[in-house]
Amino acid sequence: MKKFGLATQILVALVLGIVVGTLFHGNEMAMAIMVPMGDIFIHLIKMIVIPIVVAALIVSIAGVGDIKKLGKLGGRTILYFEIVTTIAIAIGLLAANLFHPGSGLDTSNLEKSDISKYEETTKTAEGQGFAETIVHIVPKNIFESMAQGDLLPIIFFSVLFGLGVAAIREKGKPVLSFFEGVLEAMFWVTNQVMKLAPFGVFALIGVTVAKFGVATLIPLGKLVIAVYVTMVFFILVILGMIAKMSGTSIFVLMKVLKDELILAFTTASSEAVLPRLMDKMEKYGCPKSITSFVIPTGYTFNLDGSSIYQALASLFVAQIYGIDLSITQQITLLLVLMLTSKGMAGVPGASFVVILTTLGSMGLPLEGVAFIAGIDRILDMARTVVNVLGNSLAAIVMSKWEGEFDQEKANDYIQSVKQSDVA
After folding, report:
1. Does the model's pTM come out above 0.90?
2. Is residue 115's pLDDT more than 50?
């Protein structure tokens, strides 16, 4: 297994889980063997979520204090990132409501105990008004919230604490260093837990298919189609409009970055193209001082593709289990993703952890990650392309906003790209 990467191992585990689940459909003994393996993986995931949420949010929020020192550029960049990623999350939620990728699965075979706790959580949330939801977000005892795994109050406290660390400046540096150390340690723990992901996915998907049959797989295809259609829409409409407003074309930008976009798609890694991306955006007319700040910062704060995917995937899991989220709950989901999608950016398997955090905060079944984990690589390829394109466009927008974009240099570079294509 060492010859294969984690994504390949998870995909193989997914296929094996489907095969075993199909062969032992309705077999209680086979399910009894697989259930503990899946439960152990879910417990490990639950174990790492809270320390990662706390450390990642405190480090990222306290880090914004340093970004503000860069003056107007820092403030404008963060404002732009916040607006665009919020639009991305909203589009992801709208797409999930439009496509219903998780609907259509017969959950009548589920034992009542499997889902009653989630239905209870959802009904409680539905019964609450907006005021009660806001009150619930503010913890009366943060340690009680941590013990109960109540993520919304934990997120609220972590953001507030991060702002406090940033506000006290020099005195806050030892505290920030401590949480940076915690985050690094949790990176290591997360990596170890993720090595067990193939076994967890095998068991969880195996049990699901054994309970529901092969019909379980239909929502997976619907999710892939929904994600890709939504990503294309976001690129052509939202990024296309932003590009036009900033005096460029999204198609020209895609042509300039075609090699980087292909590399990002095939490797599913935006980090792999970071140096080349910065170099090309400088050639495209963006000053070095802006590209060297905006693009790396965007890798933490402006992951449009990941934001769309996380919103879609969270509602996908709710739909699989037949849980309807109210408008208030979906607004809460949007607010949670606005914070966690940024705080988790540096975490290994970030989107996976963000979805788990989101599911936990909304009282949704964590077992649903078995579906997503198996096809995550296919979805990761699409979201990486959107992340890369979104950050490249951000460099142009910020350069124009600062009045430092070199249009003549951009025109010359576009011409040279066109000539090289003809040659």
Report:
1. no
2. no
